[in-house]
Design a protein that fits this description.
single chain, alpha/beta, Rossmann fold, eleven-stranded mixed sheet, 25% strand, globular, binds adenosine-5'-triphosphate
Amino acid sequence: MPPPVWRSYCWRSARRCSGFLIGEDGLTLDCEGLRLRNGSFELTADFSVPQGASVAVMGPSGGGKSSLLAGLAGFLPAVAGRVCLNGAPLDGVPPGDRPMTLLFQEHNLFPHLTVAQNAGLGLRPDLKLSSEDKARRDAALDEVGLSGLGARYPSDLSGGQRSRAALARALLRDRPLLMLDEPFAALGPALRADMLDLVARIRAEQGATLLMVTHHPADARRIAPLTIFVDEGRAHAPVETEVLLADPPPALKRYLGEV
Ligand SMILES: Nc1ncnc2c1ncn2[C@@H]1O[C@H](COP(=O)(O)OP(=O)(O)OP(=O)(O)O)[C@@H](O)[C@H]1O
């Protein structure tokens, strides 16, 4: 059973998040004729992600996986098309007002804040935490295996511990779209599997929709029934992970061979 602190902020009914109406089963994500620009690189995306789905994002280095997530988060301009959440367009909505969290592989923590403060930002950006907030924060740190390390600074943690602290903050943000860009690349296989299972469990409890960039087919198989293949500036529509990996198209086969 999850600890009560997680259940206490899981959605039990439809609610509003950043002005978007979110159903109890999460949100749908639609990229409609989307074209994103990252310097001279362009990425196209035209697909739908079903409500509350867990989706891996895979493809060769430089294909555009990070650009896709950065574009959805509003960090890259759309030169054409649009992104909709539950049918509502995100046109002009700044990154901070989008009901989503994007977790990168690195650079997720503020070096001048302790682990507890970094995690606490997921609850209140001004860090004025109530005693209930503090209990949630501490439970989140326990969940990711950082009990007793709240007073440390990021520079005093291992790479894996830093990624777990960032995960605690992302989970505390409790946004209906959770996007992870290779967040556990610094972890060994056993710990990575643990973190993936934790993400999967909390995603299910929160009813969030998940997009996760990974280079590991095993990660996709473990928690993502659907996969978006991104290659040469095109994000393909999500397909069943098992079906895709069982009979990959030539570009994916080449990529998996290299991995
Ligand atoms: N800030 C930038 N300015 C210009 N071009 C960029 C910038 N960031 C990335 N690119 C280019 O955009 C393309 C897609 O990069 P992106 O990081 O989205 O790929 P990726 O699939 O996530 O790769 P990887 O698996 O190596 O992280 C690459 O050709 C990259 O060189």
